[in-house]
Amino acid sequence: MTIKDTIYATSQAVSDFTFDAKVVEVFPDMIQRSVPGYATIVSTMGKLAGQFAQNNSNLYDLGCSLGAVTLSMRRTIEKENCTIIAVDNSTAMVERCRLHLDGFRSQVPVEVRLADITEYSIENASVVALNFTLQFIPLEQRHALLSKIYQGLKPGGVLLLSEKFRGENEQTDSLLIDLHHDFKRANGYSELEISQKRTAIENVMRPEPLSMHLHRLSDIGFSQTNVWYQCFNFCSMIAIK
C-alpha cells in the first residue's frame, strides 16, 4: 500500500530536504505526484538498459533510492554475466531498497551499496543510470562525476540521465515552473505544500539549463547525446560512448 505524502501539509519551520526515513515512507507517492511521466521514464530506462547491456559487464544505478530503476533494468537484461550495482548515500533508502529487491526473484544479481557516488568506482560498465540524481550533486563536482562515469563505460556503453532542468532564460524558466506547479496541484498538493517543498529543496537541488547538460556530456567525450523524454522542466537523456 502506497502511503500518501503529507510531509509539508501543515505549516512548519522548513529545513533543508533530506532523504531520511520520513521521506522513504512516502517516496513512491511523492515521486509519482511530483515528477511528470515518472513511470514512463523508469520503464523506458529499463528497456534502454536491456538494449545496451553487454555480456560480462556491470550496470550501475547511481542514487538508486528505493530501486525503481534497478528493478526496471533487471526485468529486461538478457545478456550473460551481468551484475547491477545500486548505490545511494541514504541509509534509510538503502535499507528499504534491499527489502524491495528481495521481493522479486531474478537471475540477474544486484549489489546494493551505501556509498557516496562521487567517490564510488565505476568499472566495466555497459549502462550507468542517474535518475534525478545529478541535480543533488554540488555543481563543482558534476563534471568530475560524469567524467568518471565516461571512463568507466565500455565502448558502446550508455549513460541514462534524468534531470529537472532550468529554463534558458527567466521567462522560459518561470513558464516551466508554473506548468510544473499546476501539475502538482492537479495531483492534490496544496499551495502550502508546494511552497514549503520548494523552500526545503532550493538549497539542496540545483538544476542547470538543458544546454549545459548537453554541452558537458559532449565535452566529456560522449559521441551521441539525445533527449528522449521531456515534460515541462523534466527530461531524460541518453549519452552513448
From TrEMBL:
Transmembrane segments: none annotated. Keywords: Methyltransferase, S-adenosyl-L-methionine, Transferase. S-adenosyl-L-methionine binds at residues 38, 63-65, 88-89, 116-117, 131, 198. The keyword Methyltransferase applies. It comes from the Bacteria. Pfam families: Methyltransf_25. It catalyses: prephenate + S-adenosyl-L-methionine = carboxy-S-adenosyl-L-methionine + 3-phenylpyruvate + H2O. Residues 61-157 form the Methyltransferase domain. Belongs to the class I-like SAM-binding methyltransferase superfamily. Cx-SAM synthase family. PANTHER family: CARBOXY-S-ADENOSYL-L-METHIONINE SYNTHASE, TRANS-ACONITATE 2-METHYLTRANSFERASE-RELATED. This is Carboxy-S-adenosyl-L-methionine synthase. It comes from Pseudoalteromonas tunicata D2. The gene is cmoA.
